[in-house]
Amino acid sequence: MTTRSSRSATKLALGALVSFAMVAAACGGSDDNGASPGTDAPTVTEGDAPPATEGDADAPPPTEGGDTTESTIAPDQVIDQDDVVDDDTGPQQGGTLRYGLEADVNGINPTSSSLSSPGLMMGNAVFDTLSVFTPEGVAVPYLAESLTPNDDFTQWQVKVREGISFHDGTPLNSAALQVNFEAQRADPLVGLAVKPFFPEEGATELVDDLTIQFNLLEPNVYFPGSLAGQLGMVASPDWIAAALDDPNLNQAPVGTGPFMFDSRSQDSTTKFVRNDGWWGGDVWLDAIEFVPVTDPDTRTDLLLRGELQAIQTTNPASVGDLQDEDSIQNIIDETGEESFAMINSSIPPFDDIRARKAITLATPRENYINLIGLGIARGADQGFVPESQYYNPDVMQEGDDPEGAKALVDEYCAEKAADINTVLGEAAPACTDGKINVELQYSGPAVVQTRIADILSEGWQESFNVTIDELPQDEHILQTALGQYNINTWRQFGATDPAQDNVWLMCRNVGFISLNWPKFCDPERDELLLTAQASTDPAERVALYQELQQKIHDDYLYIFFTHTIWDNAFTENVRGVCDRVTPEGLPTQCASNGRTWFSSVYLV
Hints:
Blueprint: E1 2-4, H1 9-21, E2 96-101, H2 117-126, E3 131-133, E4 139-141, E5 144-149, E6 155-160, H3 174-186, E7 204-206, E8 211-215, H4 237-245, E9 259-265, E10 269-274, E11 287-292, H5 296-304, E12 310-313, H6 316-323, E13 328-333, E14 338-343, H7 353-362, H8 365-371, H9 402-416, E15 431-432, E16 435-443, H10 447-460, E17 464-471, H11 473-481, E18 487-492, H12 523-534, H13 538-555, E19 558-563, E20 566-571, E21 574-575, E22 602-603
Parallel strand pairs: 1-17, 2-11, 2-12, 16-17, 16-18
Antiparallel strand pairs: 3-4, 5-6, 6-8, 7-8, 9-10, 10-11, 12-20, 13-20, 14-18, 14-19, 15-16, 21-22
């Protein structure tokens, strides 16, 4: 095994150029158990919400929020809130909540920053989303008053609530929504999640001062769900314009949310203070301080010592320790993202399916599940938990077969040893001494990430010469988006409705910069995805998504390890985490892929 601490000069220059163009967009490159998305991969859709779910047979009925069509779906598994303390004293104003995050991000601008779970968490303080999910997995209006489709779901009208202003005094109206949409669509990275699904001309129309119409390329019954994440966060149009001129302003977001930006020291502390004029009502905390702590053991220790009042973690060892602590409240969610190794199919050696299948067979899944999952995170075979109606029981993740791997490697190297693996160098051969040369990339530094790299490298070493490349999280996602990797550890999928995961899978998202990270195009797979997002027939959608899981398995692009287990843990004096409601009084999702919300939180 070889460890690399730097990239080639060519790659660094290219990365710097693209990073500058993207204003150094950061990603949820890594989680505590070694997977990086994201989507929560940059989480640019609501692809980081917990359950995978089904749609109703007919167009869903209006909600209490006005003339609105919901994405009516039912969760696979309820988030476990058994440790959350009920308090009869009622909310109290005051205090600062210090929240430990798994990483920092390079910006908090929903139109240009690629927001991973930590970025989305901070965004939840300062921005409101047009829609939110209920605990049952229904996308309902929030900052929007109504979400209304046409008959074939190719157009959606979004009406915002009247009388709301951004923190800088700019009014919220349909023109502000259009500015946000166009800024997202124009961004080199965030735009990858937007442009492929809208026409080049006429993507939006202003119906009146409060209503905008989105015109889609294809029918999408589940469009409201995409407005519950980053694409639904609405920023001040004046601030967006100023940030285009001065990218430093990406660090000082301006939204409509319950908290306003106060200060930020990147990789140290980001502080938001209460917005006393919030449109949604009373806000209880004086302030929130977000503190990135990349090592999960350290993050857990800080919580137990009382230096933090809340943390997010996916490290199974930390989850187990926190659940054993009577003084800690835990919100456990394992219904969202999956942890896996992801393979770049666009360059040697993994442009050949034999090499992809070989490293899949060589992967020591049992060791990973036992040593990293620790009996807490369940093993995963596919992108759905077994409780999901979309789970395909015939799809089983392969692995722990070094002999099968070696036979494929022998065959591959006999034919293609002289192919060039450009990730390792301009003249690096695909094979050396009868083994395939590969680079394993992951995000760090973190002890658990190094442990995972050791486990994988040891399992692969009989048939692969493995080079290790540990990168900071933002560089990790940049290299992945550019296709400058062989295989990496990643965390992704797990959308509240699986249609939100299309962005990671479709041919139209393969390019110089890709959100289809493996850079793999299959028109038949695209047809499955588009048919499923247009269907209101639950049985049809189940069959389509089960077929999709078989296709993903057969292409050998992802080596599934575990279903990510998220724990949002709080000290015993934190209250109200699960009390947020919509303006119509509907309860909302308590936690989603490591994220919580703050308008209802208070300290006792």
